[in-house]
Predict the structure of Putative membrane protein.
Amino acid sequence: MAEKLFSSADKKAIVDAIKSAEVATSGEIQVHIESRCKGDVLDRAVDVFDKLKMYQTKDRNGVLFYLAVEDKKFAILGDAGINKVVPENFWEQIKEQMTIQFKAGKFTEGLIEGIKSAGNQLGAHFPYQGDSDINELPDEISFGS
């Protein structure tokens, strides 16, 4: 179910948004989509964050967008480095923007909007480091059961 929610064009647009957001930053953004989330959505997002080894970025500046589509749950999780510098309630504000899109059935647009907002903050606090900057995490969407 999770993979079927997004067409090939939608998936490409989301990956392109990730790549575009990461051009101006050393930060890393990942999207993980599952059908169901049995427990607390933030607990599950933490599990996925760990499984994807997002804590292994040099500056601890990874951001995970986690969606459980059938349960209509989602979370945004930033690592310690980015959480120290973003404004209070920053992730909640992005979630509110995304929720408006999601409620209108615009999942791709909502994700892209959230990715752009996160990318702007990452770029402001963790600018691209030139030749020394490597893409530490994959840009592709990961899918769970």
Q: What stands out?
A: Helices lie at 8-22, 41-51, 80-85, 90-103, 107-125. The beta strands are 28-34, 62-68, 73-78, 142-143. The radius of gyration is 14 Å.
